[in-house]
Design a protein that fits this description.
By secondary structure, the chain is of the alpha/beta class. Helices cover 30% and strands 17% of the residues. The chain has six helices and 13 strands. An eight-stranded mixed β-sheet has the order 7-4-8-1-9-11-2-12, sandwiched between helices. Strands 10-3-13 form a three-stranded mixed β-sheet. Strands 5-6 form a two-stranded antiparallel sheet. Strand 5 (140-141) and strand 6 form a beta hairpin. Helix 3 runs parallel beside helix 6 (254-264). It is globular and about 40 Å long.
Length: 284
């Protein structure tokens, strides 16, 4: 088949159009990442089994309610399922991994936030209160429960990233790029009151929260799920140097939170986080 000048011109236009389209997609992805801050440190606190209205503006949760005023209060944040454990997996790996209960133990090898950070030359750790030893793989010990510790389930996250909460540094410059804090079954409000959990957060993490405001860092407080009373609507609050104070009505779930963290550090999206939108409109 011989090509005349008109046919060649048409093919050239089509090829150019494809190039422009591909470049446009790349620019759009870059723009999304550029619109987000890149914190030196992010600390994610996960609490248990309470709906938004049971915590925010509850007189028994004065500290967490104050955080909602200091930072961005996401009023339309939701867990993805019930019970607890699949939500932790969703937040950490973009998937419930097919789990529908709180059983233990489980082993996975799929992509996850910790593995992505480490592969990207960044640092990650999870700090679990009540865990008897660093790298512990048991299902329960006192008030510690592995079901609330997703990183221990993944073979591509080293045991050295699975730490006791007593290892959380007082010199916040020594924190990893991204870390999780999971209180024990009392202090996370699972077995004890909202007031107990609120007091624990203030005592243990307010120092970091205030430091984050002036040190290019971020604090993110969320819950795994509600108590099945409010369509899984949960409190989620962000405080940090690049967070505007105010209310956000953007609908967000655990996949959207994960997508935000991945985009902040220019990491590849994971599983269901790929179809989720990052948190926007709260950054300065």
């Amino acid at each position: 088949m011989r090509f005349n000048r008109k046919m060649i011109a048409t093919l050239a236009a089509l090829v150019t159009g494809v190039s422009v389209t591909v470049a446009g997609v790349g620019r759009a992805q870059a723009a999304t990442s550029a619109a987000l801050p890149r914190p030196d440190h992010v600390v994610i606190l996960v609490l248990e089994n309470h709906a938004y209205g049971q915590v925010i503006q509850n007189p028994n949760a004065p500290y967490i309610s104050s955080l909602a005023l200091q930072g961005a209060n996401l009023t339309q944040s939701f867990g993805v399922t019930h019970p607890s454990e699949p939500n932790y997996l969703a937040l950490f790996s973009g998937s419930t991994q097919g789990l529908t209960d709180d059983s233990c133990p489980h082993t996975y090898s799929k992509a996850n936030l910790g593995q992505e950070l480490l592969a990207g030359g960044l640092t990650f750790a999870g700090y679990s209160e009540g865990m008897p030893s660093d790298g512990y793989t048991g299902c329960n010990s006192g008030r510690y429960a592995r079901k609330h510790n997703p990183w221990v389930n993944f073979t591509n996250v080293p045991a050295s990233a699975n730490l006791r909460y007593t290892r959380f540094p007082t010199d916040y410059t020594k924190l990893p790029a991204v870390s999780f804090v999971v209180p024990d079954l009392c202090n996370d409000m699972h077995d004890c009151s909202v007031a107990t959990g609120d007091a624990w957060v203030k005592k243990n993490l307010d120092g970091y929260v205030q430091w984050a405001k002036t040190h290019n860092s971020l604090f993110l407080l969320t819950f795994d799920e509600d108590d099945r009373s409010a369509s899984n609507r949960i409190p989620t609050v962000l405080v940090g140097q690049h967070v505007k104070s105010g209310t956000s009505t953007q609908r967000v779930n655990h996949y959207g939170v994960l997508r935000t963290l991945l985009d902040m550090y220019g990491l590849a999206c994971i599983a269901n986080a790929c179809s989720a939108s990052p948190i926007t409109g709260i950054w300065n």
